[in-house]
Amino acid sequence: MLGPVERQRRRTAARRIPFDAQTFLDSPGLSKIIATYARNETVFTQGDACDHVMYIQSGGIKRSVLSKDGREAVVAMLGAGDFFGEEGLGGQTVRIGSATAITPSLILIIDRVEMVRLLHDQPSMSDRFITHMLARSIRTEEDLIDQLFNSSEKRLARTLLLLARYGEQDAPTTVVPKISQETLAKMIGTTRSRVNFFLNKFKRLGFIEYAGGLPVKINRSLLSVVLHD
């Protein structure tokens, strides 16, 4: 039986190792489901039971909420390395929104009870999850500030940069998922015609590459729109 000093040493050593989803998948004795979703396929729907937590191995997920009168609001776009559907860990019994794949996606599905056990027993998993939740909280606060104080043009520019995962890669241009102008409009709270106007403007200024009515590459120069007062 390990003493308290040895347990602490092992926990400290484990925290130095980033969470490796593939290692987790290969671990024996774990209840695990790996699911694949095609583009536009539903992962879960608003009102479903909160029985599982999901981890995106590859691909991308759109989180949305539907109002009683049928209006849809897109509240988050997630990519590889993100968790989602974790509200059940806080006592939520049903999904308050829906999740849809925006590209072909590989999703690790973890039972809620299993997730609680993992967070208790696996320090590296716990650290990775806490980091994710803190980042999500900061992002939510930034989104609220963006909606309250910025123009629709700035909100669109920021959204495109986030979809391109700006700040996470060194390449000067980044390919973004195929997202319709209607979805972009729902994300920033404006009309599709305004999104179309700004996308054409960004293309003309060389901030984005644009094909078939959709942004396909984002240049870092688009950041100037966000920073401009």
Task: Itemize the secondary structure elements and their pairings.
Elements: H1 4-15, H2 21-26, E1 33-37, E2 42-44, E3 52-66, E4 72-79, E5 83-84, E6 98-111, H3 112-121, H4 123-149, H5 152-163, E7 173-175, H6 181-188, H7 192-204, E8 208-211, E9 214-219, H8 223-227
Antiparallel strand pairs: 1-6, 2-6, 3-4, 3-5, 3-6, 7-9, 8-9
Helix pairs in contact: 3-4, 5-6, 6-7
Strand/helix succession: HHEEEEEEHHHEHHEEH
Q: Briefly, what CATH class of the largest domain?
A: Mainly Beta
Termini gap: 62 Å
**Percent range for helical residues?**
40-55%
* Rg result: 20 Å
Largest sheet: 6 strands, antiparallel
Number of domains: 2
CATH architectural arrangement of the largest domain? Sandwich
- The CATH homologous superfamily name of the largest domain equals Jelly Rolls
Question: What would the CATH topology of the largest domain be?
Answer: Jelly Rolls
What does this structure look like?
The protein is an alpha+beta fold and 229 residues long. It has two domains: 4-146, Jelly Rolls, CATH 2.60.120.10; 151-227, Winged helix-like DNA-binding domain superfamily/Winged helix DNA-binding domain (Arc Repressor Mutant, subunit A, Orthogonal Bundle). 41% of the residues lie in helices and 26% in strands. The protein is built from eight helices and nine strands. The chain has helices spanning 4-15, 21-26, 112-121, 123-149, 152-163, 181-188, 192-204, 223-227; strands at residues 33-37, 42-44, 52-66, 72-79, 83-84, 98-111, 173-175, 208-211, 214-219. The strands form two sheets. Strands 1, 2, 3, 4, 5 and 6 form a six-stranded antiparallel β-sheet that branches. Strands 7-9-8 form a three-stranded antiparallel β-sheet. A hairpin with a 2-residue loop joins strand 8 and strand 9. Helix 3 (112-121) crosses helix 4 and helix 5 packs across helix 6. The longest helix is centred in the middle third of the chain and has 27 residues, at 123-149. The radius of gyration is 20 Å and the shape is globular. The termini are far apart. 23% of the residues are buried. Mean pLDDT is 82; it is low at 1-17.
